[in-house]
Amino acid sequence: MGSTMINDIRISYEDFQKFREYFYHKTGIWFDESKRYFVDKRLVERIAATGMCNFRSYFTMLRFQASGDELQNLINSMTVNETYFFREEYQLKCLVKSVLPEITEKKFDNLPIRIWSIPSSSGEEPYSIAIYLLEYWEGINHWDVEIISSDIDTNMLHCARKGFYSHRSVQYLPAQILHKYFRNTDGGYQISEELRNVIEFTRVNLFDPTETKSYRNFDIVFCRNLLIYFDDMSRRQAAENLYDAMKPGGFIFLGHSESMSRISPLFKVRKFAEAVVYQKPYYKSEV
To answer: How many CA atoms lie less than 13 Å away from 171 in the CB half-sphere?
Structure first.
């Protein structure tokens, strides 16, 4: 299978195999061979950044470093984060037109409606949810809402908290919304401080049940275009963790190319006028 040599640092095929097995067990993300150049390039960048001279010494340090700082740096480097505001807007329409009315109709307590957006990436998705609720859901005047957004990538969480965005990120926003919730900055836009204070951003590895165990009682989950990076076993584990995080009757939105039916039998399919959504049954016999 040969080896990749970048900046005088060589990554052999055996190195690539060792690394992807290690990364898989840590994150649930599996890199197939078509991603090899991407992986090798990121590895070389991290090897150089740490002052190591070869893969072997870097990999030893990576596995035994007590702080885990380099593993987090590597995760940040390896995760792909590309999104924009109002992405797959038909799902946001489904949220306000169909899902939230059903949830509030069956809600008999005064607890806030809890929404979990994972991955947060640089924040476009959770902020889009908040804007959509404020602009298009009448119930926002009657119900408290909590939005928590999580990611495994700490660099992305930092970006999300700052809320600075390029023209590309906001290109599909109506002009009046851009004017209302953003201010112009040098070369882009920053989302309003009010909205930045609305979202709680947290770091979590969805693949690890010890990290997700504190995430519970969500009415709605957005987990779009994350599970495509997992293999079948990792997807099932992630689906179980999501299931445990949700209230009975809660809803989960996946990316347009993803299907929970092919991943786990725990959820039932709900077909609304605007979108297909998956629901945690009220009772196990419903599945």
So the answer is: 6
Topology (CATH level 3) of domain 3-78: Chemotaxis Receptor Methyltransferase Cher; domain 1 (1.10.155)
- Are β-strands 182-185 and 188-191 bridged in parallel, bridged antiparallel, or unpaired? antiparallel
pLDDT tens per residue, range 102-139? 999 999 888 999 999 999 999 999 999 999 999 999 99
In sequence order, the 6+-apart residues with CB closer than 8 A to the CB of 65 are 71
Peptide bond into 126 cis (omega under 30): no
CATH 3.40.630.30 is right for the domain spanning 89-286: no
10-36 pLDDT tens trace: 999 999 999 999 999 999 889 989 889
Domain boundaries, the chain: 3-78, 89-286
Q: Are 250 and 218 in contact (CB under 8 A)?
A: yes
Question: What tokens were used for 46?
Answer: 């991290």
* pTM, full prediction: 0.86
CB contact at 8 A, 223 and 118: yes
